[in-house]
From TrEMBL:
GO terms for molecular function: inositol hexakisphosphate binding. This is Xenotropic and polytropic retrovirus receptor 1. The keyword Transmembrane applies. The keyword Membrane applies. Residues 739-776 are annotated as: Disordered. It is a multi-pass membrane protein. Residues 1-253 form the SPX domain. Residues 506-700 form the EXS domain. It comes from the Eukaryota. One of its GO terms (cellular component) is plasma membrane.
């Protein structure tokens, strides 16, 4: 495999701009090759000796009329003139038998003894290549030195934080009669671990996760060092092959003196993290290394692909028979009103399943285009599903729903019409068990991740908002049809008052008063998330986002009133106005805020400078399609009968999940671009041992952002209620990411790299970038100079540690 492909597939995508520009160096090396070929051609032309031209035989009468000396003289004169004018084209007129012999190439050059001497004697193209190589070497050295310093500094802070927790009075033995008795007893000794609170265990879990993230970051940096070193080796080999010089031998001596090759701090750091993990979390060294190391083996999962394919194939077979039963026309004589309600119910379950299958397509594209979706969704790199494993879950559910619909349509168990709702209840119960089964089967960890995310969404005002939380909550807004359809499984037996017989008949909003409430649940969850973000950041942008979802709820309620009185033109006009405002509002937010597009001064007109997908027309098409689908409700205005409503009721949810799938496709790409701009490749761990300036900034007070129950100090105790609500995720994170102008809608993974790599004047590397034997090297000193305040857990005071 060519090294260009190797560096594309194995590089840390968030750091790709900081790797050696191998392609750019290849282009400059190509210019060196062209210059050498050009000089060889010039040498051939300047050393060419023209051959004599054999004159054509003249006419016999002319020869006989002239004397021999005059003929010779005129021939020589003609020969000299032609030779002089056509010397550059002699190879066209020379007979093959008298062409000149080949001229040898340029003579071999003397070996390189030093780069400086070579630059004085080299061609402009060769000098430009060496200068570009120096620039890349400096870029790689600077980035590596700073990243190494960052990880070393954070690990030192983590160890100090852990030591403070162990020595804190909060986690010592409680003062009670029992403890006094045990303390005075010489025969009984109870270890302190039995008295540690659940808060201490929670803090230990966070420290354990932080250690894992630091180890993962060190592994990524190790891979960064290896690939760049190999890149310099490969490009210098090509340089030697083209020029015939010994450039790799001389230049690699300069490379070997740089910190990313010479430094031993990273290897020492990996061992120290392993030792820290073993000593504090009761693991053997082999187990600790196995848990710490990320497993990036590419397993094709052929069995999972086979199972997914079988499920989809059988599901399509059942759907074929279902269509035959429906006789294609849903208004056919064999389908009554009760069966239409059953179809609506199953439609509500098929919609999220189809969307999950579409997400599988998006995952395959993200993988192919090196979009690091696993890091964006904070999936465990040691245990996550591949594309085929993921598809097993929606494929199996799709097969189950197809079979249950087949069972219902054909009434395989010969149930009476009054009891056929049992099919609906059985379907919803089994589908729920598939997703929420507590047994460790059927990709338990993936299902657990999804369930925990749903729990975080429901309790978002208490737990804070991460990317996966707001992302899935936004997806739920496109599944409002499903929320309303689920009422059929409960209210169908109450068909006597004819309320449920009209449920879900009009596009997922019914005459039942529960319908607008159920349809608005996803929007209310997003409002809770926006209010939490507003509380955390005090940024009005989140209040504007709250208004967006509030407009959606208002439109839903107005449509319910419209269905109660279809002929009321006043309500209809108000609903059209509110729906128009909501559609425009959400469209602008999708494109401008979620996708970070419509930048006027962008190099990609009306898009943005950095694009994760190469074709800019993809974004333009997405903007147009998103706008059209946002106004798909206009189809309601042209309805004139129940059959049209029925068809629209099937089409609109499918259009909405198609629009949402397109939104997901670009939204994840936008987040990936933001991570690349900020060089974020590991999760945020600063919340364990730094403060947030938050709302106390004006009073010059810093409140702790941890939740381990330590003494916060007098001022913090006065704001205890505020601290409980805001929690450990309270930090100003609604920021504009550099270059993308993306206003974040969730808790970012705070990374110093945004200010770090934009403040080059604050950090000066020495010539060699050496930090081999000094763990407090230049990179560490830079991070220490950021003056991150720490929390003294024993005294409840703030220690402003500028150095380690």
């Amino acid at each position: 495999m060519e090294f260009t492909k190797v560096i594309q597939t194995k590089a840390v995508q968030e750091w790709k701009e900081k790797y050696i520009d191998y392609k750019g160096l290849l282009r400059k090396l190509k210019k060196v090759q062209w210059s050498i070929q050009f000089r060889n051609n010039q040498l051939h032309e300047t050393t060419h000796i023209p051959s004599p031209i054999v004159p054509k035989t003249m006419h016999r009468n002319s020869i006989s009329a002239m004397s021999a000396p005059s003929i010779a003289e005129s021939a020589n004169t003609l020969l000299s003139k032609v030779s002089h004018k056509l010397s550059n084209f002699s190879h066209w007129i020379h007979p093959p038998s008298i062409r000149r012999p080949s001229i040898p190439d340029l003579p071999p050059r003397s070996p390189i003894t030093s780069i400086e001497l070579f630059l004085e004697q080299s061609s402009p193209e060769e000098g430009a290549f060496i200068l570009a190589l120096d620039k890349e070497l400096e870029k790689v050295t600077r980035f590596y030195t700073r990243k190494e310093g960052e990880i070393i500094y954070l690990f030192e802070k983590l160890k100090k934080y852990h030591e403070n927790i162990r020595n804190s009075k909060e986690f010592k033995r409680p003062k009670s009669l029992a403890s006094k008795f045990l303390r005075n007893s010489s025969s009984l000794e109870v270890p302190n671990e039995q008295f540690r609170s659940s808060k201490y265990k929670n803090a230990q879990k966070k420290i354990k996760k932080a250690a894992f993230e630091l180890y993962r970051g060190a592994e990524l940096l190790k891979n960064y060092r290896h690939l760049n070193k190999k890149g310099f080796t490969e490009i210098l080999k090509k340089f030697d092959k083209i020029t015939g010089l010994n450039g790799s031998e001389i230049y690699m001596e300069r490379v070997s003196e740089r910190s990313f090759v010479k430094s031993k701090g990273l290897s020492r750091l990996l061992k120290e993290i392993e030792t820290f993990y073993v000593d504090n979390f009761d693991e053997s060294r082999s187990q600790a290394i196995r848990k710490l190391k990320s497993h990036n083996k590419k397993d094709p999962h052929h069995n999972a692909a086979l199972r997914s394919g079988l499920c989809l194939g059988l599901a399509c077979a059942f759907l074929f028979f279902n269509v035959l039963r429906l006789q294609v026309d849903p208004e056919g004589p064999s389908i009554d009103d009760e069966m239409k309600l059953h179809l609506k119910f199953f439609m509500g379950l098929f919609i999220p399943t189809i969307f999950a299958l579409l997400i599988g397509i998006a995952i395959s594209w993200w993988t192919k285009l090196n979009i690091n979706y696993k890091f964006i969704f904070e999936l465990d790199p040691r245990d996550n599903l591949g594309i085929y494993q993921y598809l097993e879950i929606p494929s199996f559910i799709f097969l189950f729903l197809s079979f249950m619909l087949y069972t219902d349509l054909y009434n395989l168990f010969d149930l009476a019409n009054a009891t056929r709702s049992v099919y609906l209840g059985v379907t919803i119960v089994i589908a729920t068990l598939i997703l929420f089964c507590p047994i460790r089967i059927f990709h338990y960890n993936a299902r657990r991740w999804f369930i925990l995310t749903l729990g975080r969404i429901i309790g978002s005002f208490w737990f804070g908002v991460e990317f996966r939380d707001f992302f899935i909550a936004d997806v739920l807004n496109s599944l409002s049809y499903t929320f309303v359809a689920m009422q059929l499984s409960f209210c169908y037996p109450l068909n006597e008052n004819d309320q449920c017989s009209h449920s879900v008949y009009f596009l997922g909003v019914s005459k039942n008063i529960a319908a607008p409430f159920l349809s608005s649940i996803p929007a209310m969850l997003r409002i809770a998330q926006c209010l939490r973000r507003l509380w955390d950041t005090r940024e009005m942008i989140h209040f504007n986002n709250t208004l967006k979802y509030l407009s959606t709820i208002i439109s839903t309620v107005l449509f319910w009133f419209l269905l109660k009185d279809v002929d009321n033109m006043l309500i209809k006009g108000i609903w059209i106005a509110s729906q128009t405002i909501s559609s425009i509002y959400t469209f602008i937010w999708d494109v401008k805020m979620d996708w970070s597009l419509l930048e006027i001064h962008s190099s990609n007109y009306l898009l943005r400078d950095e694009l994760g997908y190469k074709n800019p027309n993809l974004y333009r098409a997405a903007i147009l399609i998103n706008m059209l689908l946002r106004f798909s409700w206009v189809m309601i205005l042209f309805s004139n009968d129940d059959k049209y409503y029925y068809i629209v009721g099937i089409i609109m949810p499918l259009l909405e999940i198609s629009r949402r799938w397109m939104w997901c496709f670009i939204r994840v790409e936008t987040e990936h671009v933001a991570n690349c701009n900020g060089y974020r490749a590991i999760k945020e761990i600063h919340s364990l041992f730094i403060y947030s300036d938050g709302t106390a900034e004006s009073n010059n007070e810093n409140y702790p952002v941890n939740d381990i129950g330590v003494d916060e100090g007098l001022e913090a105790q006065k704001s205890k209620f505020d601290s409980i609500l805001r929690g450990w995720v309270n930090r100003p994170m609604s920021i504009r990411v550099s270059k993308t102008n993306q206003r974040r809608d969730y808790n970012t993974r705070h990374d110093m790299s945004e200010e770090l790599y934009n403040s080059d004047e604050e950090f000066n590397d020495d010539e060699s970038g050496d930090m081999t034997d000094d763990i407090r090297g230049s990179g560490v000193k830079f991070y220490a100079s950021r003056r991150l305040p720490t929390l003294d857990l024993e005294k409840g005071k703030e220690n402003d540690s500028s150095t380690l």
